[in-house]
From TrEMBL:
The keyword Ubl conjugation is assigned to this record: no
Keyword Ribonucleoprotein: no
CC annotations in GO: mitochondrial matrix
Entries under HAMAP family matching the protein: CH10
Annotated GO MF terms: ATP binding; metal ion binding; protein folding chaperone; protein-folding chaperone binding; unfolded protein binding
Lineage: Eukaryota, Metazoa, Ecdysozoa, Arthropoda, Crustacea
Full protein name: 10 kDa heat shock protein, mitochondrial
Amino acid sequence: MSGALKRLIPLFDRVLVEKAEAITKTRGGIVIPEKAQQKVLQATVVAVGPGARNNQGQHTPVTVKVGDKVLLPEYGGTKVEVEDKEYFLFKENDLLAKLES
């Protein structure tokens, strides 16, 4: 991780992910034509915030951690460029799923 990226810490329940890529194959290896597939994006978590605050002012921890693979919606997130690389910031509840390895 680069020095500038180490200093970028998301706030609250925000999650920073590496540039997402569209999934074009099924688990069985079948390639789905772009027109026929709904865009589901996969990304790797690069940084997470401490979590949202509850009514008592305490942080509710984020359920993903750095290095996790996640599925993202086709639209949404905030694009962030750091040292010529693209990243995206999402709220934790905008993430669709966490992929187990």
